[in-house]
Amino acid sequence: MIRAALKSLLGRKLRLVMSTFAIVLGVAFVVGTLIFSDTLNRSFTSLFASTVGDVVVRPEGGGDAPGGALSTRTVPGDLADTLAEVPGAARADGMVNALGVYVVDDEGKPIGGFGPPSLGASWSDAPAGNGLEGLQIAEGRAPEGPDEVVLDAATAEKSGYDVGDTVPLITTDETANLAPTLVGIADFAEGGSLNGATYAAFETSEAQRLFHGGADEYESIWVTAADGVTQEQLLADVEAALPDGYEAVTGDEAADESASDLLEAISFLTTFLLIFAGIALVVGSFIIVNTFSILVAQRSRELALLRALGASKRQVVRSVQLEAFVLGFLGATLGVLLGIVLAIGLRALFATFGLDLSGQPLVYRPRSFLAAYVVGILVTMAAAYLPARRTSRIAPVQAMRDDVALPEASLRNRFRYGLLLALAGGALLAAGLTDVLGIGYTGWLVGGGVLAVLLGVTAMAPVLAGPFLRAARALFARLFGSIGNLAGQNSLRNPRRTAATASALMIGLTLACTMAIVGDSAKASVDQTIEESFTGDFVVSSIFGGSFSATVAERVDGVEGVDAVVRQRSGFAEADGDFTVVVATDPDSLERLGVSFVEGGPADLTTGTVLLGDSYAAERGLAVGDDYELDAAGGPVTWTVAGTVETGALLAGGAIVSIPTYEAAGYPAEDSLLVVYADDAASGLQERLDEVLADQPIVTAKDQAAFAAEQREPIDQFVLIIYALLGLALLIAVLGIVNTLALSVIERTREVGLLRAIGVTRAQLRLMITLESVVIAVLGAVLGLVLGTGFGVALMRAVRDEGLEVISVPFGQLGVFLLLAVVVGVLSAVLPARRAARLDVLEAISTE
């Protein structure tokens, strides 16, 4: 039986390779994602290990700034001198660190800013923990005074600057524009990179002047261990010398803390990519099931002879499973090779978004390859099991007659089971979207519900497709005569096969349709919110979504035609374990901004008080007069609730405070948004604003239409990424249609020969097979559009309380999807139709 199975496999190499390709793509996505994830983890772990000392001293809680921001708590400069005298310490170095120091390249465009931070720092030659080599001067020298800077090698290369050049820098501090001379280029001596971050380092006193107003203070102090002293021993000595309000941690602990926090924050990337790998594998499974169903049916006489010669049902099943094992192993092996290429591609793709891992070699862990073979083999064998088991139940005599049609009762049972599964999936989906179970995060319920509905509809598809296929036959007969009628009859001949092939396309289009509705609804909600709450004439904001120097407001306020400028600042805080946004503005500006008070008024917003969003206050049981405790940038604070308001797009957040209260809580004096009000008679104000902001390329002035377009842009980018990833599943679905048609042509070789013998031309034969392909593609598209519309509308209704109040169905885009399905059907039929048309008539007629 083993020999027979292997010979059978070798005899059908081309047919099976096409179905194996579906597994290759799915496995490649799994392997590529795991390799990329491991490379990401290794890169950040190595990076943070080389950017801490043996012991790191910082303010208490300094490593836990809300929202991952840089803490504004500092340590005094003289503490470094004290720690340098601690037993076991070789030296102690104060470190100044700042965020939002942007390098402007030689074409006037800022480098980085999206994702990886733009760092400013004091230059130090202090060794990293455990004697590791951190950034070292690779060219030039260290900065020694004012107006000198060192850049990391990647940033210097991207910006086009060499040692001796003047480097334009933009900061978010009071000195908004800098033009120091590049005196050195730093790099990792043993390889590595900053993973896309930019780094500009200054002499220590200059860094303190720029980022701390000249105060002798640091963000942290590195204490280097003397020879023979461990980090734990040094930590004990350092802790004994620390005054109250400061803490010390080992370098290993600080590195693990930083790496873990960051990797947890970006872990969604791995999950995100693995979800699409799973989608690809599910779609691929449909193709494997369909392929083996057709192949086993074609081999019914061969299997019947084996049964007549003494083979048992179990042996027949095992022989088919052996073929599936070989195919799964082959597909997994090819998938591993393609996965490595995909990991390289992912690394290059994310580099375009700022996450540059080019300095880190790919990490190959055994689990990546083990997962490839487990997934590839199990998916293929599981997909082949049902066709094998179904065939083993056919009696030898029945198979000899090539009578392998399944009874209608089987389809009815599939419909019942599919209906139950779809209903169960709908219940899970509803529970996940509404959280009626009260279990918090319900993403798994939503995912499980969607999968159950898709599988349920797939099971019901042969019955659901019946009316559609009969209508298609009637339409084709009217449009194309007898050839169209034949195409329609061929689609109806085996509704199970037609529906299974269409289901692969259905899954991809369901998800694409859902994302189209989510994206269009999100953009419509943004437009509506901005239209309702846009109170000024222009908005000034950072192109990177961050903060900018407070001096920008002074410049804008002095522009001719500007009547008033309203500042807004925002930062993260933590309250009761949840992050919230703290917004700061001038209380006198609240009326201009169109803020509606539920309780209290603008005069109530004084130093130490806070206004809360009404829904936010209700969720937390807070009322006017209550204390509101939270962990802000500078440490724990307690504010008194002075009122509640309805918040809008330009003033969104849980907490609203005055600017003095904001700065007293430790937040930097940096603006996040400026609302500009123009004089009634002002004209040409856009040009004048652009002119005054010309040396601040990270900041732009926008009217309502441009601001709305800017807010829509990230949504468009996200939806495009989703479409690109879903393209993999759609590609597999197209291969499934090609495979099914090709196998169907082989199955109907004698029938094709007879048609040619009675006068059907090659062109008519190609048309017939093309119409069959179009039916499959359109059926998948219709099912996908119906399900996707349902999923999309349900999802948007469930998140209406999150600010996405508009449900918009992009019918034009859905129509494009349907048109593309017709195109897919036509293209998928090209090769199978060509093969059918080229069959020799006499040989085809004589085929058994």
Question: What features would you describe in this structure?
Answer:
This protein has about 850 residues and is an alpha+beta fold. The chain folds into three domains: about 50-265, no CATH class; about 460-535 and about 705-848, no CATH class; about 540-700, no CATH class. The strands form six sheets. Strands 16, 18, 19, 20, 21, 22, 23, 24, 26 and 27 form a ten-stranded mixed beta sheet that branches. Strands 4-6-12-8-11-7 form a six-stranded mixed beta sheet. It has a four-stranded antiparallel beta sheet with strand order 3-14-1-15. Helix 14 (about 445-495) runs antiparallel to helix 22 and helix 15 (about 495-535) packs across helix 22. The chain is globular and about 95 Å long. The model is unreliable at about 400-410 (pLDDT under 50).
Short note summarizing the structure:
This protein is an alpha+beta fold.
